[in-house]
UniProtKB/TrEMBL annotation:
MF terms in GO: structural molecule activity
Name of the protein in its database record: Phage tail protein
Lineage: Bacteria, Bacillati, Actinomycetota, Actinomycetes, Kitasatosporales
Residue ranges the record marks as coiled coil: none
Matching InterPro entries: CHP02241, Phage_T4_Gp19
Any single Pfam family the record assigns to this protein: Phage_T4_gp19
Domain of life the protein comes from: Bacteria
Length: 145
């Protein structure tokens, strides 16, 4: 197996929204899509139902990380929604520990859904984690650079 074909075992996810980098996240959940099927029965055909594809459905994406200075960038993005929601284009780039790009996903018409800050409890000292959740209307593929 060539070096470039090694699986990405340890990655971080760098997020940009309209060219503004929100920083890197440790976890990323929800990248995917689903074909919604409509079932139809055909009169006289008792052997099966027709499965007709209707549309694509995209789950929300959740990204988590320990609190960093980039948390302010996320807060500014969420605060910008108070003056009106403007859907944006975002990119999530998976990178290895040494910064090499493994994969990239472009997201269409992104809006922030939720920001969850850390819970502080002196009896249980843990790393302060933040999570953002974003919704989108599909993927955009860009030409390789």
């Amino acid at each position: 197996m060539a070096v470039t074909d090694d699986p990405a075992v340890s990655v971080c996810f760098v997020v940009t929204v309209d060219g503004i980098e929100l920083g890197s996240f440790n976890t990323c959940e929800g990248l995917g899509c689903e074909v919604v099927l409509e079932q139809r029965e055909e009169g006289g055909n008792n052997t099966h139902l027709w499965q007709l594809p209707t549309r694509l459905k995209y789950p929300n994406i959740k990204l988590s990380r320990p609190l960093t200075r980039d948390t302010e960038k996320v807060a500014k993005w969420f605060a910008s929604m108070t003056t009106g929601i403007r859907r944006r284009t975002a990119h999530i780039e998976a990178r290895t520990g040494d910064g090499r790009k493994v994969a990239q996903w472009g997201l269409l018409e992104v809006v922030p859904v939720r920001w969850t800050g850390p819970s502080f409890n002196p009896e249980s000292p843990k790393v302060a984690i933040e999570t953002i959740e974003i919704a989108h209307h599909g993927y955009v593929m860009e030409p390789e650079s």
